Amino acid sequence: MYKKLSFLLVLVLAGSCDRLPLESAAQSQPADTPPPLAAVRQAETVEIYNDWNGYSDITPILRHSKLRLDRQKLVGNSHIAVGGYGAAGIHQQKTTKVQIPTAVTAQFLATLAKTPLQVGTYQPRLDSSDNYPSIQIRVTIDRQQITFSSQSQADNYVPWKVTLQQHHRVTEYISNSAFPAQALKLLNPYLDRTGLEAIVQRRLRQKLQPPQFKNQTIGRKSRP
Q1: Phi and psi, residue 58, nearest 5°
Q2: pLDDT digit string (tens) for 171-211?
């Protein structure tokens, strides 16, 4: 009788030990818990689309940069274009080569990687009718793509929508963090900000120029 009870106790304990790893794994991370973004540090390419529109004589303003990691530096091209409200086409544009220093590249990627995610539906914060930002920071790592995007008018463009795409699976989260905006500010001095200001000023001067009349005799008195 004693031997039989001991044998049954051993079986119960063995069964409990077999279940422990499964229970621990189930409790480690719920299905809806956002994943960490540490993979951003291993970025292969970075695309930045920083656009703005509104009631202005120089809209839209487009700033598009396509960069790749080369020897721990982000290198590529930055294209800037300035239009004119109510007019078709782009009136001033410029493309320049970009090279981000190693330390700035590392800080940029590390700042993006710290962005905390939350489960939720993205709703941009819009408080005015004369300010329409549209920002995307698209990071590619192997076959995975992580996109930080916002159309919010609030400080640091919060909230942000963060889209994770791997193969054919797309998952969206939100973030109320300033980290994506802070990361973007690190690169702004290297994305030809001076060039943008120059073409904006050039465009404004064009808008202020008086119209050129083909018939220069208009307004003159005719000779007898």
Answers
A1: -120, 15
A2: 999 999 999 999 999 999 999 777 777 777 777 777 666 55
Token pair of 194 as six digits:
């001076």
- Angle (CA) 131 133 135, round 5°: 175
Nearest to 196 by CA among 62, 99, 97: 62
Eight-class DSSP state of 211: P
Residues with Cβ within 8 Å of residue 29, at least 6 apart in sequence: none
Distances (CA, A) of 94 to 47, 53, 90, 200: 17, 18, 11, 11
Which residue is listed with tokens 């700042």?
A: 111
User: Mind listing the pLDDT tens digit for each residue in 115-165?
Assistant: 999 999 999 999 888 899 999 999 999 989 999 999 999 999 999 999 999
Reported as half-sphere exposure (CB side, CA atoms, 13 A), residue 124 has a value of 16
DSSP 51: E
The pLDDT tens digits of the residues spanning 79-101 come to: 988 886 555 566 788 899 999 99
3-state secondary structure of 29: coil
Cβ-count burial 83-94 (b if 16+ within 10 Å, e if not): bbeeeeeebbee
**Amino acid present at 131:** N
- Block residue for tokens 């819009």: 126
> H helices of the chain, where?
2-28, 102-113, 179-187, 193-208
Give the pLDDT of residue 119.
95
